[in-house]
User: Fold this.
Amino acid sequence: MAITRRKFIVTTSGVAAGAMAAPYFFTKSAKAADEVEVGILFSLTGGLSIIEKSLADATLMAIDEINAAGGVLGGKMIKPIVEDGASDPKTYNEKASKLVIQDRVPTVFGSYTSASRKAVLPVFEKRKNLYIYPTYYEGFECSKNVVYTGAVPNQQLSNYIPWIIKNLNKKKFFIVGSNYIYPREMAKVCKILIEQAGAEWIADEYLELGHSEWAAMVNKIKKSGCDVVLSNVVGDSVVAFYREFGNQGLTHDKLPICATVTSEIEIAAMGAEFAVGSFTSFPYFQAIDTDINKAFVERYRKYVNDSTAVTHHALESSYFEVFLWAQGLNKAGEATPAAIREGMKGQEMDAPNGHVKIEAENLHTYLTPRIAEWLPDGQGKIVDEYPAPIIPLPYVAYGETADSLFCKEGGLDTSKL
Amino acid sequence: MIDVIFIGLSLSSILLLIAIGLSITYGAMGVINMAHGEMVMVGAYSTVLCGIYLGLGVIFAIPVAFIVTACLGWLMERVVVRRLYGRLLDTLLATWGVAILIQQAVRLELGLSFFGIHIKGLGPGLQNVPIPDYLRGTISVFGADVSAYRTFIIFVTIVVTAVTWFLMYRTPIGTQVRAIMRNPQMAAACGINVSRVNALTFAYGSGLAGIAGVMMSGFKTVFPAMGTPMVVDGFLVVVAGGVGSLMGSIASAGLLGQINGVTASLTNDILARALVFGVVILILILKPQGLFSFKGR
Assistant:
């Protein structure tokens, strides 16, 4: 029997359609009625896995705790589907598509870098799904499909810069960062705040992300005549930076590094002696002296089976965001992305860092700014903190204030930019 | 000005330290050793483990790291590389595979993490190496305060280069290596045991990478993927300097390091990096064989 071309096409396309549809039917029928599936999307391999693995662990720990306490929607268990972003934005996009289209989860928790968030954003916006992002980031984003539970620039800097000028009595800033969107946006906000406070910035310099040769930059800092260094350096460059700083004979008591990214993880990696006396601004530190935080650190260490594991800001956000999500889901009453988003608006709870609340207009989170000085044991001593959580302003660099939000329920008000 | 030149010198010494082993394996044996960066990484981890389990500091870790990486290099030559001589692109792929294997071995704690056993000092996380007090801070050289640790690296690089020069140009084995570089068949015909000399050369080149790793561990983060960007710098130096030429590697490391250091000090690091790549391209256009090259026969 001769196979005509037409016949061939008809048969193969029929088979292909069947093959493509098959997983859909399988997943559909396999999905139990007493479960709510969610996606977990962090890099478990590759360069960023060191940090992102800890975020995935914190998210899974929160899911375990919610399940142990009876689950969501009156007794349904949360079932995590874990995917690996492999430290690569393109892989992030593929895995996000898989979770949203094939697994049809109503929510995905994930991302550490802005690059990976930007890569998955189109998937969630096009499919009207929901992404929950735990990391502090540069702001300048207003998506209906993302809930942001990390700090935005005003929550890391609006207390920090005036504090440096007033309490440390510093007047000349050297701003240094890794060369990509986050440090550059942070630098913009820094400059506005520095000028407002009547001080000056004398340099704004960048080094490639992941670059670890700091000799020339530190030498420049040394000769610049600055009296404080504001660091937006990210990743393993941080370690090389602090080490070079010490090795060139600079000390934090005369010329402190005030950082926005250096967390407990980087301090442990560089050796705490290189950071003693420097400062970092974050809403959360492992050293926060409350029962709820101590219990959290204890539980986390037990969960990852490592008695020396450290907790940090993005990790803590990865943890509490699941509870806010569960509250939102319970309020919504049904596990669909749109309903969960509506439900999450205004949700609040007592997290390890203090009281947190989702701002209904821009889906960012109220957090309490804190400043810590690093001690020889690798922990921060909290030297300043706001009495209450402050409103998140993702567009603060462009003049956003609490009275005039740019990012609102109806979307971004571009006329204000 | 002295401090700028010192930075250039320091960058040069780091480049040379990484490139010198590569120049030997690539030059002498025609093997593109993508696992060279992993040898650096293994050297750095040797330092970490020496510190944790033997209580040895950076200086005493140098011989340990040299022996560990040299043995690893020797094993690699015996098992993989020797079957691939004369197949340049195949060596690239095969050694890349070995590189991934070594990285994963460190990440998975030699496979023990599957059984829930953890070795302190290995694993996917970041490690750090404390540096002794006398290498911290600065020392004064010609009126400029320069980093003591970087001065130490320059010193180590000079010693390593001198030893390598001596081995290559003043010992019988060096003569044999250079004969193999020019023409392996003819060398074999003259009675040189090519396979033995090659194994030794490869082990020595890997050992030098281990020493580079010890030095790197003092100011860079130690983690499983740390070697990958270094091997790029290493090849840059070797290719621009001329394959198989010790003088070429020294000259090109010196040149590229100074260009990088001076440009970074005058403008910024990003431009400096671009300029370094630009200069390498220019060298390869004008002198495709590199700065110092000899004719193979």
Chain B has one domain: 17-240. Chain B touches chain A at residues 3-4, 7, 10-11, 14, 124-131, 136-138, 145, 147-150, 218-221, 223, 225, 229, 260-261, 264-265, 268-270, 272-273 (CB under 8 Å).
